[in-house]
Amino acid sequence: MIDGDDEASDLDQAGASSENEVPDSVELQSSGEERILSNVNNEGGLQEAFDILPILKEESFLKAFPEERKARALLEFCAEGDVGAILDLVKGGEDEDDDFSMDGSDKAEGAAKPIDVLRYQDPTGSLDTGLHVAIRNGQEEAVWLLLLLASSLELHRFPPDVIQAAETLGAVREDQVGKVDVRVLENAEHMTATDLAQKLGGKWEAWTAAGRLKHVWDGIVPVIF
Questions:
Q1: Which of 72, 123, 162, 178 has the fewest CB atoms within 10 Å, i.e. is most exposed?
Q2: How many other C-beta atoms are found inside a 10 Å radius of the C-beta of residue 123?
Q3: CA-to-CA separations, 49 to 14, 21, 139, 191, 224, in angstroms, rounded
Q4: What is the pLDDT of residues 31-55, one digit of tens each?
């Protein structure tokens, strides 16, 4: 949805509504959240009362900030747990017209600072990183990959099968000196990845108990006032 280079929208891909379908309606929920409901057809058949507002917002955002499309694609891949797509995006390097990078370094002197996709935070409200998104959606393989590529978690703390799979896929950890460890980044709720994992519990209880998601400076966890 986010990663396409053409101008076709998700609504186009979903298919136009037929003449017999009810017209779009705007609904304001008791929570104050607005929805735009529409009946749409796609490969899965008719979807009634489908909320198209998130799609419209996403398309509007990408029209205003097209340089962020790949960073937002990474968030989507993290939600899906598509480690192959994540790695392909990271290994793909920089396109000539794209203001993004893997390490936040400038492409040219005087140029605007490019987007570090591995540490990108969703500016549309949540400020989630890909790590937050992967945890929220229960995608352990994506979490391991992000820790390998964007954290300083010691390699000996990765399971052997994870390291072997990463080597097979061609995932290589770059020098993390001077780079922000993705585990320290907070979302709009002031939650780091480990905070979110503790809140969700379940499969993440073992992760938080092992301390993999918590970044430690010189053995001391900093207290931020």
A1: 178
A2: 13
A3: 13, 10, 29, 33, 45
A4: 556 777 777 777 777 777 777 666 7
